Amino acid sequence: MPLAASYQNPANQAIAAIFNEIADLLEVEQANPFRVRAYRNAARLVEGMTEGVDAMLARGADLTALPGIGTDLAAKMREIVETGTCAMLARVRTEVPPYVVQLLQLPGLGSKRARILQHELGITSLDELARAAAAHRIRELHGFGARSESRLLEALNAHLARDRRYGLAIAKPCADALTRYLMASGLIDRLVVAGSYRRGRDTVGDLDLLITGKNRAQIVDHFVHYKEVANRISAGPTRASVVLKNGMQVDLRVVRADAFGAALVYFTGSKPHNIALRKLAQAQGLKISEYGVFRGKERIAGQTEASVYQAVGLPWIAPELREDHGEIDAARSGTLPLLIEERDIKGDLHVHTSASDGTASLEVMAAQARLRGYQYVAVTDHSPRIAVAHGLTAERLAAQADAIDRFNAEHEGWPVLLKGVEVDILEDGSLDLPDAVLGRLDLVVGAIHSHFNLPVAQQTARILRAIDHPHFSILAHPLGRLIGERNACNVDLKRVLTAIAQRGCYVEANAQPTRLDLSDYGCRLAKMEGVLVSIASDAHSPADLANMSLGVTQARRAWFGQTDVLNTRPLDALLTLLKHTM
Ligand code: DGT
Ligand code: CA
Ligand code: CA
Questions:
Q1: What is the DSSP letter of 299?
Q2: What's CA 405's distance to the chain center, in Å?
Q3: Is 421 in contact with 389 (CB distance < 8 Å)?
Q4: Please, what is the Cα angle at 497 between 473 and 566, to 5 degrees?
Q5: Closest residue to atom 18 of ligand 1, CA basis
């Protein structure tokens, strides 16, 4: 009889867990069944022992004297006791597809059924498996039925939802399309996507929709019949949760119009902000909930967000600040920042044209910038090293500069086009174009596009060297991250920002939804170092100029006002600020 888990020796538990996992993985690989059984038997044996294997080794016992344990298993047991892990496990983990390894960790799924799923469905990820389950393809497989299919889907969704966050490149189109669908029903008075999405975080765990409307049940019903719904987690008279086909969870709540403000505060969060707010209310003898602010049984606020904050003695706090990062103290003392808004932006300092990898000509990009009311746009195509992007040679860049001069001369009243470049920072920190060429421009935007994995000292030195270049204006997307695809590179950002401050140049908050680099955190560091930030769309098409708002949101999350941003300056002031970088 195995002992109750809590009484088991930790070394024996570790050995059993590792041997069981090895057996599972070998089984998926269809290894020799005797080998598989040897690991399972050994796991069961150590689980049932009252003496710890560590204690046995300490007293010099011979493990091969145990039933079924040969020299090989004995050596692995010693390895696990001494190192906590086992090289063999690491090796078989790399031989089995990673999602199968994850699959084996789902409750109730053994290696036999994992193998069937892998072989019969030709699946390569847990996402695909979730989609197959949602499409009822699992129940037809040998050894599965409708019930095990729905249990599997539940376990998968819980697993996927726990680990996964979605970048705005996925979440925003998703929220926009769902909003359009719901509003088209004609059932809805107000709809807000609350949660981390409303706070403007660069990734979201799920979407939280808050709605008012007359017929609550009908609204919920309309929601769960959205064509992108893959799976309903729950549905009640005023709320429902679903998983969309792309894996994102959406929680919807229909609330009473007279409590909309209270619900909005509650479901916008963040949770730490809510908790701080609740404490503040309690100190005044008030209770705050998703239904309103109460003194005893009397409801004293709740219709609007402002009424909720006012009831606890605060001005309204912008959602981007609601992270319990000091905003409640600032609100109490009347020192909330006057946050930057998109309309403060006077131009865009990172834009591509069809000369490199953009889709549109100078003229078309300028026309779109004019519609946005900009005073200026910097044309910053790639340098030659970025061959896939058709980077500009010195000659082509000079020709573009001439074209820009002509354009400006012929387009009175249009945004002024600035002559720029997005020059590649090479591996050694030098720039990808000669000084003479760079010196003719209005600004030089520099960025790394390769060698993202250098060690931190080398990466930092590389970027510091680039910043030191006599013609360096703005460091673009400093960390090189691509949300969901590539991690930020290892660089000492604080040191880089200090150097930028000393050199008198600038840093970019790239507003592409997959980049948002600098992030809110990076923007905060820049402000601490006294570095002005260029919020830039990095547009590759006219529509991309609208990315600007995402960058402004990150800046607001960093408590930025208008003066913290380079491109809120009118043209003359901007040119002065750029001139001393050149
Ligand atoms: P996410 O989805 O991980 O990106 O982050 P949120 O902030 O959207 O979190 P979520 O979706 O779990 O919940 C939405 C909001 O609901 C959250 O920001 C605050 C509120 N909320 C959720 N659970 C609690 C709770 O246990 N206590 C309090 N005070 N508020 C909560
Ligand atoms: Ca959420
Ligand atoms: Ca949620």
A1: E
A2: 40
A3: no
A4: 45
A5: 269
For the segment 117-157, what is each residue's pLDDT rounded down to a tens digit? Answer: 878 887 777 878 888 888 899 998 888 899 989 888 888 87
Collapsing DSSP states into helix, strand and coil, what is residue 190? strand
Ligand found nearest the CA of 268: 1
Q: Distance (Å, rounded) from C-alpha 565 to C-alpha 474? A: 12
**Beta bridge pairs of residue 241:** 234, 251
Element of type H or E holding 9? none
- 445, 349 Cβ separation under 8 angstroms: yes
Ligand 1: which of 271, 280, 317 to mutate, most ligand atoms within 8 Å of CB?
271
Rounded to whole angstroms, the Cα distance separating 168 from 517 reads 13
For 209-264, the pLDDT digits (tens) are 999 999 999 999 999 999 999 889 899 999 999 999 888 999 999 999 999 999 99
State the pTM of this model: 0.76
Ligand 1 residue neighbourhood (C-beta within 6 Å) = 195-196, 204-206, 208, 266-267, 269-271, 274-275
What does the pLDDT look like over 464-480, one tens digit per residue? 999 999 999 999 999 99
- Distance from residue 109's CA to the centre of ligand 1 (Å): 31
pLDDT(569) > 90: yes
Q: DSSP 3-state assignment of 488?
A: coil
Distances (CA, A) of 218 to 188, 207, 252, 297, 404: 10, 20, 13, 31, 57
Closest protein CA for atom 2 of ligand 1: 205
**In the chain, what are the domains?**
6-161 (1.10.150.110), 166-254 (3.30.460.10), 259-333 (3.30.210.10), 342-581 (3.20.20.140)
Determine if residue 186 is left, alpha or beta; phi over 0 gives left, psi from -120 to 50 gives alpha, anything else beta. Answer: left
- Tokens 């006077």 correspond to what residue? 346
Angle, alpha carbons 225-201-182 (nearest 5°): 20
Residue that has been written with the tokens 């001393």 in this structure: 580
| pLDDT tier for residue 96 given thresholds of 50, 70 and 90 | confident
Handedness of CA 282, 284, 290, 295 (dihedral sign): positive
For residues 177 and 272, give the distance between their C-alpha atoms in angstroms, rounded to a whole number: 30
Determine the residue type at 92: V
The Cβ of residue 367 has, within 10 Å, a number of other Cβ atoms equal to 15
- Residue 307 forms beta bridges with which residues? none
Task: State both tokens at 543.
Answer: 């529509």
Q: How far apart are CA 448 and CA 463, in angstroms?
A: 8
Atom of ligand 1 nearest to the CA of 196: 8
**Angstrom distance (rounded) from CA 69 to CA 140:** 41
Q: What is the DSSP letter of 347?
A: E
Of all protein residues, the one whose alpha carbon is nearest to atom 23 of ligand 1 is 271
Query: CA nearest 538: which of 328, 294, 259, 352?
Result: 352
What distance in Å separates the CA atoms of residue 180 and residue 175, rounded to the nearest whole number?
9
